[in-house]
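User: I'm curious whether this sequence folds into something compact or stays loose and floppy. Could you predict its structure so I can see for myself?
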Amino acid sequence: MLETTINFLNTLLWSKLLVYGLVGAGLYFTLRLAFIQITHFGHGLKIMAISRQGSEGGLSSFQVFCTSMAARVGAGNMAGVAVAIVGGGPGAVFWMWLIAVLGMATAMVESTLAQVYKVRDHDGQFRGGPAYYMEKGLGQRWMGILFSIFLIVAFGLVFNAVQSNTISAAMDQVFDVPPTYMGIVLVFLSALVIMGGLKKVAKVSEIVVPIMALAYIAIAFVIVIMNIQQLPAILVLVVKSAFGWQEVAAGGVAYTIAQAMQSGIARGLFSNEAGMGSAANVAASATPNPNHPASQGFVQMMGVFVDTIVICTATAAIILLAGDTIGSGDGIQVTIAAMTQHVGSWGGGFVAVAILLFCFTSIIANYSYAETNVMFLCGNSKKALPLFRVCVLGMVMFGAVAKIDLVWNLADVSMGLMALVNIIALLLLSGLAIRVINDYRSQVDQGKTPEFDRSQFPELNEQLDDDIWLPDDHSVKSN
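Assistant: Here's the prediction. I'll summarize afterward.
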């Protein structure tokens, strides 16, 4: 009964509502922002280069980038890409690329709004995200509550089960570590970090994520060079199968355009989170540099690019260049088998270790997203956090020993409901977001270092807290 209900909701969300909603919203923001993800790509890289230093009251933009990447880079990049290819054929990779390019504009909008409507908690730490801009920007606290509940279920509970499930499957396959033992280890390690709150999560993420991401990309690059003669044919296969221009079959299954689209978009969103509203929660925690909400939007825009166009493509290349591994396993097993075929037995061990680190950082970053929304529900009070942390650790243990199909399907439903609520809010607030982003671009075009002047947006006077985005607020001054 549970699986039937979940499958029905997934079909409704991903075959109809969100396929059109996500692509439509991404296309709308891309057009309204004049293809900002292309025209200002170099500027996004520049902002990333100067974003390492934070100040009192917030994390640095680089810490926020690493924390959001910790959540993004995990099961979706390794197991999720394999699930997309097995479920939709090579054409699914094209639709992952498309949703990422369009999603860069969506990420720009939602992270800018998160910065505009951020608040301070009792410790002086910035908090914010979709729930906050729904309450303050739209005046609809009920909408923020609904989003918070979906996010807490999705990121605090279900997604963490997905990550631990992927880790335990990889460690069991490669090192014969029983899932129960792996679950206990993950619970212990997770507890050590999440008890330290958002700043502890950020510190761990900014160390682990860059090292493992670069190592994984380097291995993928070597594999591509080893198989460079096959690469043009693989790229042609991806594009042709995405549009049904070439009959593609793997493991006895013939793939349709609809299957490729559904698999690619669902797994692409799970990986890069654009439009879902998740990364916006940590984006609000930054002290942006330059001192303008849109600068953090650029940082998160680049996060979508790195996650999907770079890291997911690396995994897709590893799998597709292996050829006959498509359809030969479930989730992470496909990626491990492909890597082993390319580089030998040590490849499986490398993937297993990469999965362990990537998915572990995803667990702690997912927790940080949910923590902000627990505090939103509790009026920025931390009283409910101890009980919530116990629930998170319980789901980590559950995921380590659960059936993967049910866990993935639960993740799709909770993610879809979150994204649906957030897309509605983004469209309703898009006018303000685009004005704020255009204000940033106008200052850049004039050769200025952008500074946000809240007085230029009179409607914000009644929506923002008194200590947010004021000229004499030293905690938000550019470094």
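Summary: The mean pLDDT is 82. The radius of gyration is 21 Å.
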